[in-house]
Amino acid sequence: MRTYVAGDALVIVPEDVPEDGPPSALADWLGGRFWLGKVFLAELVRRGRVRVQGMKDAHLDTPVVPGRRVSLCGGVEADAGVPGWYPGGPWPPARVLFEDDHALVADKPAGIIVHPGGPADGVLHPADRDTLAHRVAQHFALSGLRRQVRHVHRLDRETTGAVLYAKHEYSARTFDALLRARRVKRSYVALVAGRLAPAAGTVDLPIGRDRHVAGRFRVSASGRPAVTHYRTVAVAPGNPPVSLVALTLETGRTHQIRVHLAHLGCPVLGDALYGCAAARRLWPPGAGHALHAATLSFDHPYAGGSVTVTSPLPDVWQDVLQRFGLHHGLLPGAQVTLWEGMT
Which catalytic residues are annotated (predicted)? Predict the structure, then answer.
C-alpha cells in the first residue's frame, strides 16, 4: 500500500489486497487500515469526498481493488494553521524530530504550553503568546504547507520532550484512535527525590482534581483510572537520595506521573506544584522540572512499519546527572535502552 498527499487530498493506492476470495468493502478496508469510523466514512461518501479511480460514485461497499486509487478529498489543507487571535511572532523555531506527509513529532522545551487556551474576555493570557502550537504553525508556513495544527496529546508546561501532531484530518482521527487503544507508546524519564520501594513496579491509583488547590490533582478514590509503570535505573546517595527513574503510561491523566510519584513520596525534582522543598532545591531554578518525554513509538498506518522517535535530554539534565554521578545511567543517544522489558 502507498499513501501520499496531493493538494487537498489523501491518496491511497492499495497494493496488498488479496486478489482471490471476496473483495474487501471500502469502508471495512479503510476502517481496518486507518482506524476510521464508519459514521465518519459514511459522511465523507455522502458529501462526495471519497473518489475511487475509474468510478463515477463511491459507496461504503465499493470493492477495494489492488492498484486502484482511493482519494479522500478535503481535510488536508487549511487556510488558518493558527487562529487569527494568535498575536506576535516570529517565534523560536520548532525542533522537529520526525515528519512525513501525515505526522510530525516536535520537541517541546520547558516553560511553554502545547497549545493556547484562547482569549478570556477578549484578553489573551501572556502564556498563550508563545506555545508549541505557534512554533509548529510557523514551521508549516515556512515549509510552504497550509496545515491546521492538530496535537494528538499534550505535555505539562514544564515537562520537556516529544509531542505528536497529525498533519491532516484523517491522520488526526487515526492517531486519536491509536492513542485511545494504547497503541501509541510514550516513555518518560524522571529524576526524583527519594528512593522508590519497590525499585520497580506499577502504580494503579485513580486521579482526580484537588478540591482545595486550583490546578492541582491528587490520588482520589472518585477519580479516573490511572496506571503508571516505573523502574529505578540508578540511585545517588544523599539526604534525600536522588533516583533516576524510567516510566511508561497506560493512561494519560493530567499530571499523572507527577501525582503518582509524589504519592509514593518521591516527587519530581523542581516540581513547584507537587514537590517538597528538598525536591525543588535540587533542580536549577527556571529550568522546568526533571520530567522528560524521551521516546514515542507507534505502528504507522499510513507509511507502514514502526516509528520510534527519541527526544534528546535537555542540556540541564546532563549537568544535573553529572553532579549526582548518574550520568553513566543515561548516556546520550542510548536512552531507549532504559525501557527494555517494561510494559
Answer: 156
d(CA 97, CA 132): 14
- Which one-letter DSSP state was computed for residue 127? G
Instruction: Tell me the one-letter amino acid at 59.
Output: H
Q: How far apart are CA 203 and CA 250, in angstroms?
A: 10
User: If pLDDT is split at 50, 70 and 90, which confidence band does 335 have?
Assistant: very low
Domain boundaries, the chain: 2-73, 95-179, 183-339
- Domain 183-339, what architecture? 2-Layer Sandwich (3.30)
- The third-level CATH classification (topology) of the domain covering 95-179 is Pseudouridine synthase (3.30.2350)
Cα of 209 vs its chain's centroid, Å:
22
Q: Which fold has domain 2-73?
A: 3.10.290
pLDDT tens-place string over residues 135-194: 999 999 899 999 999 999 999 999 999 999 999 999 999 999 999 999 999 999 999 999
All cell numbers assigned to 55: 468510478
Can you name the residues that pair with 191 across neighbouring β-strands? 244
Q: What is the pLDDT of residues 239-294, one digit of tens each?
A: 999 999 999 999 999 999 999 999 999 999 999 999 999 999 999 999 999 999 99
Using a 10 angstrom Cβ sphere, with 0-12 exposed, 13-18 middle and 19 or more buried, the burial of residue 222 is exposed
Q: Considering the chain, what percentage of its residues have pLDDT values greater than 70?
A: 88
> Mind telling me the catalytic residues?
156
pLDDT at 343: 39
Same CATH topology for 95-179 and 183-339: the answer is yes
CA 321/CA 158 separation, integer angstroms: 18
> 316-331 burial by CB neighbour count: b if 16+ within 10 A, else e?
bbeebbeebebbebbe
With 90 as the cut, is the pLDDT of residue 124 above it? no
Distance, in Å, from the CA atom of 196 to the CA atom of 100, rounded to the nearest integer, reads 40
Contact 34, 40 (CB under 8 A): no
Residue-level length of the chain: 343
